[in-house]
Amino acid sequence: MRRRREIGHFKRSKQGGWEGEIQTLTIQRKVRLMPNDNRVADSDPAFRVMLGWQAIGDAWERQSRADPPRDYLRVRIDDPLCPISAALFPDDEGMKATLVMNPMPAHAARQTVE
Question: What is the pTM of this model?
Fold first, then answer.
C-alpha cells in the first residue's frame, strides 16, 4: 500500500475559502483557495488556488466513495517544475483541513528510479 503524504495545512478564511501553506521538498508557499465567482457549470472549479494575486491552480468539489461519504476538494496546482495533484480534506468541524498529495502511480515511480 502506498502512503499518502501530507503537504499542507489550511484553515477557513473570512472570504469563504481556505488559506494555508504547502510544503514539499521543492515548494514552501502560502496559498489561498478563493471561491470561483465565475463558476457556471458544476464541472467548473469551485475554487481558484492563488499565490498572491496569481492563479496557480484550481480545486473541484468531490465526495469520497467511503461509507459514509466524505466531502473534499480535488486540487491541481500548475507548477512547471512540480505539478501537484492533491486532495484537501476538512476536519469534522470544517474549520481546518489537510492537503494530501496523491501517490504517484507505481509505473511512474519505477520510471523515475530507472
Answer: 0.85
DSSP secondary structure letter of residue 35: E
**What tens digit of pLDDT does each residue of 24-82 get?**
888 899 999 999 999 999 899 999 999 999 999 999 999 999 899 999 999 999 988 88
Q: Are 2 and 60 in contact (CB under 8 A)?
A: no
CA torsion through residues 12, 9, 43, 58, sign: positive
Element (H, E) at 104: none
CA distances from 114 to 8, 38, 52, 68, 109 (A): 29, 44, 38, 41, 9
Distance CA 17, CA 47 (A): 8
